[in-house]
Design goal:
This protein has about 450 residues and is α+β, with helices and mostly antiparallel strands. The chain has helices at about 1-5, 35-45, 50-60, 115-125, 150-175, 190-215, 220-240, 245-260, 265-280, 285-290, 305-325, 330-345, 350-365, 365-370, 390-400, 420-435; strands at about 70-75, 80-85, 90-95, 100-105, 130-135, 135-145, 180, 380, 385. The relative contact order is 0.10.
């Protein structure tokens, strides 16, 4: 105690350099004030009919300076731009009259009626962009007259173009054998070791969940089973970060549960279990194809008021108490994870909340992070031992980092319990629920 009070103990070693591995979905709602001001500039220039200057400000707003996801060049009234969205790159140009943007989806050496029918059907769901065929090149296009290219129209038009193209390119190539994948040279390959680790834990987590469910009464535990399956989706999405068809498969499993129909939860759970078994049976080489590094410009989910996040955490924590009190700690922890995991998956969260969620995941899945080369071990499951100082230090770092933007964000570290993992999870997420995330 005296060592802690007066600093008589050993000095802390400098923090180890951790691997630079991105996790989770890209969020574009955490732009610094300078970037937000550029949107205002773009809007004001457009109202003044200074269209070239408006584009300068707009693409500066889009650019994430850390990712370098946007290339923009202008010479007088003419110019060009490029930006990344996952597996696709959007390319465009503009002059005094109009702005054009295009994404190449795939190569189609021979005309195909089934492909064209699929694209025609999807066209009906597009508001700003459209599918097109340029000789053998299958693409999506967006264009606008300069006089109507307001920042809002450009944002939503380019977002639709980019996000739809990123989602559809792999699915089209997967569903139609005559299509060939193209224009993916910008993707970064991740090390084979990282792929092996992610595949290993994908197998482990699916197996652990499916095996636990197999030992439960499907009717009595239908709610807990649904929580476990949905939590598994969100964990894979955040920690494994799959792309392409694997990501689409996760979204389809989620859709089984949330589809508005009259089917009982027991049936939906059964179908989700079967889908996970199919995913687990995929050859390793097939899974490896969808593990890659990508840059993004647009988030595929939207921000929400923090009360929505708090309500999700509160609801899950209320529902976990029966499982904790009746000696089902694993299921209880999965339900607690659902409360914040659902929000990370479904919404574009403030970066401060994502960083707190990441710490939560590092505590709960310490073996995964250790396998990837992370040095800080926040929790040792075999000993039920927490590194309380490291956890407290990390929470303080997050609060200090975001104090200017969220001055009233007060995570009360003293309320955390370390007697068991489930009680830690409950007290940790309780603190997240009651955070004041009102920005300055």
């Amino acid at each position: 105690m005296l060592d802690k009070l007066f600093g008589w103990g050993k000095k802390k070693e400098p923090a180890a350099t951790e691997p630079e591995i991105p996790f989770g979905r890209y969020s574009d709602n955490n732009k610094p004030l300078a970037k937000v001001n550029r949107w205002t500039d773009a809007d004001n220039f457009f109202k003044e009919k200074k269209y070239a200057e408006s584009l300068d400000a707009f693409f500066d707003y889009l650019r994430d300076d850390n990712l370098q996801n946007v290339v923009y060049e202008r010479n007088g009234a003419e110019g060009r731009f490029e930006f990344y969205q996952g597996s696709k790159m959007v390319r465009g140009s503009f002059d005094r009259e109009e702005l054009k943007a295009e994404v190449t989806l795939a190569r189609m050496p021979h005309p195909s009626v089934p492909v064209m029918r699929r694209l025609l059907e999807m066209n009906f769901n597009l508001f700003y962009s459209r599918f097109a065929l340029d000789n053998e090149r299958l693409c999506m296009r967006f264009d606008s007259d300069a006089e109507t290219a307001s920042p809002s129209k450009l944002y939503y038009g380019l977002k639709e173009l980019a996000t739809k193209a990123d989602k559809q390119d792999d699915l089209l190539v997967q569903d139609f054998a005559m299509l060939e994948s193209v224009d993916s040279d910008h993707l970064s390959v991740i090390p084979d070791k990282e792929k092996e680790i992610k595949y290993e834990f994908l197998q482990k987590w699916i197996g652990q969940t499916v095996d636990t469910i197999a030992g439960l009464d499907a009717d009595k535990f239908s709610g807990g089973i649904a929580y476990m399956l949905l939590t598994l989706i969100y964990r894979i999405d955040y920690l494994i970060t799959p792309e392409g068809k694997l990501l689409s498969d996760l979204e389809k499993i989620s859709g089984i549960y949330f589809k508005k129909d009259e089917r009982p939860v027991i049936e939906k759970n059964r179908d989700m279990v079967e889908s996970f078994k199919t995913m687990r049976a995929l050859p390793k080489e097939e899974v490896f194809k969808y593990l890659m590094r990508s840059k993004y410009t647009f988030s595929i989910v939207a921000p929400q008021a923090y009360k929505t996040v708090a309500d999700s955490i509160h609801g899950a924590n209320q529902n976990m108490t029966w499982y904790r009190d009746n000696n089902y700690p694993y299921i209880g922890s999965q339900i607690t994870e659902y409360g914040i995991g659902y929000c990370q998956y479904s919404y574009s969260l403030p970066k401060a909340i994502t960083e707190l969620y990441h710490l939560y995941m590092m505590v709960n899945y310490a073996d995964f992070f250790a396998a990837l080369g992370f040095q800080t071990m926040y929790y040792d499951l075999s000993k039920n031992q927490f590194d309380q100082d490291a956890i407290a230090d990390r929470i303080k770092q997050i609060q200090v980092k975001w104090k200017d933007k969220y001055p009233n964000m007060d995570f009360k570290i003293q309320n955390l319990r370390y007697d068991s993992l489930i009680n830690f999870n409950l007290t940790y997420t309780n603190e997240m629920e009651f955070l004041n995330m009102e920005p300055k």
